[in-house]
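During the reporting period the student researcher (J.K.) took over the structure-prediction task from the postdoctoral fellow and processed the backlog of single-chain submissions. One of the processed entries is reproduced below for the supervisory committee.
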Amino acid sequence: MSEQVERTPENGASLSPSGALPPDSQADLHIVLGRNLRRLRTRRGHSLERLARQSGVSRAMLGQIETGKSVPTISVLWKIANALDVPFAQLLEGETSRGPCILRGSDAKLLSSNSGKFISRALFPFEGSRTVEFYELRIAPLHRETAEAHAPGTRENLFVAKGVIEIAVGSDKPMTLAEGDAALFEADAPHVYRNLVTSEAVLYLVMTYAERVS
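J.K. obtained the following structure tokens:
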């Protein structure tokens, strides 16, 4: 990789469990994310300063993302997506193509938390507009991950493929899900995923956004 991703408390690096993404995949992610963020920001008439105020992400970090110098954590991307009022994947979408699409595991674009203990892999191509997204989530042993509230009308449908997890949504009573269990909930409130066991948990997530009126 020709350029090291700068690690800061705000961005972290997007790493695979083995320590790094495939070089071409990581480079593509930098470029695509920066291009889309600049396009969406300017389309809404936002300066970097204004978007920083609305998202809670520093102007410096937004500038680094737009210029392809760093890939932020999942949490930071959610803050930006919510401030721009766009689906998460719209920040990462590439050129639209036709026909069948194969997503090779070796080319996966992974996003992680600062600690690297919560990893998300998109199981759909980052292209075109969509209201439904499909992800694989991996949570390290006994790790607790907090997710900010998503846009109003957003729903999460989770399936536990491996492990035992607890999900707490807003002030609701926490739900415990074992292998083979699934849950559907409104994700427009802060929610917490917690791995209850000493082995990695693997989940599959379908994220559904409310239809946006033009």
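The committee noted the following: The radius of gyration is 17 Å.
J.K. will present the remaining backlog at the next meeting.
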